[in-house]
């Protein structure tokens, strides 16, 4: 665990950040490395990697430390919750045993366990620079996803990235759409799947849009089949595959709607038009 100068009257967090837990009418704060904390929440790092100092504050900026009595309550609560996750409902004797064991722990151990509990249950306060970085990455992922799966229902053609980017900007900036001000606030800590439905619904007020997966059946002559196998895999999911007696390759492939025209063009170019392609199904996913 990194060292941190925590004795100043007012803490300068610098590159560090806070995890805040509100419980029992009180606020508890610990100091963390925000990037390591993000890895911890993704189960890619240990608590020790994220927590800068095993010290709990009511107000870290002012250096106001939490009382050991309050921290013992947090540790007790955490220990009870952990045992309940393993055993289910606990008896009064089991709960009293936990309380007794916590009372015997020294202050340093209480601070360590309380810090880890706050890290697990609290809310990470991101520095602006990191928050902006995460939001920018999320926007790029959203644009990439929509471009991959979305088509214009009127033409069955994909939208160019610039069109999707422009529409997304309108949604995120709160511009008026058909007389309504609709604004989607991205959360840098949420998974993209949690936010996509609301984003897609808002985008539909700007663009006619449909997200779909297209299932196609392809048959490729033997002279092209081998080299094209890996390229087909890059475009979609091969659901069925078989080699015919003449050496041709036949497959059932699921292709994201926004990539279908590119997929079709690639096959046509590589086989000089000498292939069979049949659309079996167009399945809407959003």
List the uncertain runs: 2-9
* Alpha carbon gyration radius: 27 Å
Helix content: 40-55%
Judged by helices, strands and strand pairing, the structural class is: alpha+beta
CATH class of the largest domain: Alpha Beta
**What is the residue-averaged pLDDT?**
91
Looking at CATH, the homologous superfamily of the largest domain is: Ribosome maturation protein SBDS, N-terminal domain
- The number of domains is 3
The N- to C-terminal Cα distance equals 45 Å
The CATH topology of the largest domain comes to: Hypothetical 12.0 Kda Protein In Nam8-gar1 Intergenic Region, Chain: A
Proper CATH architecture of the largest domain: 2-Layer Sandwich
Topology:
Elements: E1 17-23, E2 26-32, H1 34-41, H2 47-50, E3 57-59, E4 64-65, H3 68-87, H4 92-103, H5 107-121, E5 123-125, H6 128-149, E6 150-151, H7 161-173, E7 176-177, E8 180-181, H8 192-203, E9 210-220, H9 222-235, E10 237-243, E11 249-256, H10 260-271, E12 276-284
Antiparallel strand pairs: 1-2, 1-5, 3-4, 6-9, 7-8, 9-11, 9-12, 10-11
